[in-house]
Write a structure and sequence with these properties.
Blueprint (H helix, E strand, L loop, with lengths): L1 H32 L4 H6 L5 H10 L6 H14 L1 E5 L2 E5 L14 H36 L4 H15 L2 H15 L14 H35 L2 H8 L4 H29 L3 H7 L4 H10 L3 H29 L7
Antiparallel strand pairs: 1-2
């Protein structure tokens, strides 16, 4: 187990290094090859050549890509100094650079945006797991009945309806007409009630989409597992149905669900763009959109790396949980 964990941690570090190098190459090396200088993006097209060259030296854009890679990675752990124009600016660790547009520390922007996205994603994840898995199990046990068909029709609607439509409908009913929830996000440190009320509709909207997919996946997997020989053997031994389902069937059913859950959760931590846009939540998704529309490369890089880290870490946790949930899995 320990050897497996060490190998996986090493693989996680290597994967993040590859993602970082690839991202740097895409955003800082390829533009130079195509005639688009990142230094010009920073100072603007109307700047004089001396100012552009000064920015290029200050940001290290004139150095080889591997040197830029080293400075970027070391800056995340120990900070980084930007020297140019006779002055030196120290960027405290973790340093992701400075925004091309606002010249604000990207780490500070991440600190403001990350709690919003994390709160929304974790709350929605709890809802979609409870709703999706429960609905899928009930549908599998009531296969062919009215309950099964109603649940699957609802799941199909959840998958098919655009999240913008669901969000606007939810805001129209519960916020505008009934006034049951807050109109804006409030940090949890300021008011738990305001935080909960501001995120309730985003949770439900995001969870409705994913719960529908998880319900269909759970139903299909449960039906397959219920037909396995060991399930029939357990029933033939006279075990109670709750033991057959809870101890045997659910363990096998949860394995593919955990796999998809790790991927979904990791990707959403990088920003649930549509949900954040619909509810005007200033999270990582909005930060990524701002970076793309304004060609603000440090913002795009920071969100990309946060997303990559969340995905690989979530998948590592899922792999470790396999051995806990399914006794047939052995980590070696």
């Amino acid at each position: 187990m320990l050897a497996y964990l060490v190998r996986r941690l090493f693989a996680v570090v290597m994967m993040l290094m590859v993602v970082t190098l690839t991202t740097l190459s895409i955003f800082f090396l390829i533009p130079k090859m195509t005639g688009s200088d990142p230094a010009v993006m920073f100072v603007g097209k109307q700047a004089d050549p001396a100012a552009i060259e000064g920015v290029r030296q200050k940001l290290g854009l004139d150095e080889p890509i591997l040197v830029q890679f080293w400075h970027f990675v070391s800056g995340i752990f120990v900070g980084r100094d930007y020297t140019g124009g006779g002055s030196t600016i120290h960027c405290e660790a973790p340093c992701f650079g400075y925004s091309f547009r606002t010249e604000q520390d990207v780490s500070t922007m991440l600190v403001d945006a990350f709690p919003v996205t994390l709160s929304m994603v974790l709350g929605a994840a709890v809802l979609w797991l409870l709703m999706g898995v429960t609905t899928g199990v009930v549908s599998a046990l009531k296969r062919g009945t009215l309950v099964d068909r109603a649940a699957m029709v609802t799941a199909l609607a959840g998958v098919s309806l655009p999240i913008f439509f669901t969000a606007m409908l939810a805001m129209l009913i519960f916020r505008t007409q009934l006034g049951w929830v807050n109109a804006s996000y409030t940090p949890i440190g300021e008011s738990f009630g305001g935080w909960f009320g501001g995120l309730l509709l985003p949770w439900i909207t995001l969870a409705f989409l994913y719960a529908a997919m998880y319900a269909r996946l759970t139903r299909a997997t449960m039906l397959e597992v219920l037909g396995e020989d060991y399930i029939r053997t357990a029933r033939a031994k006279g075990l109670p149905e709750r033991v057959v389902l809870g101890k045997h069937a659910m363990r096998s059913t949860m394995t593919p669900i955990l796999t998809i859950f790790g991927m979904d959760l990791g990707a959403l931590v990088g920003g649930a763009v549509l949900t954040e846009t619909a509810f005007n939540l200033q999270g990582l998704g909005q930060m990524a959109i701002k970076g793309v529309t304004e060609r603000d490369l440090p913002l795009i890089m920071a969100v990309t790396l946060i997303t990559a880290a969340a995905v690989v870490i979530a998948n590592l946790v899922v792999d470790l949980l396999y051995a806990v949930i399914d006794p047939r899995v052995r980590l070696a």
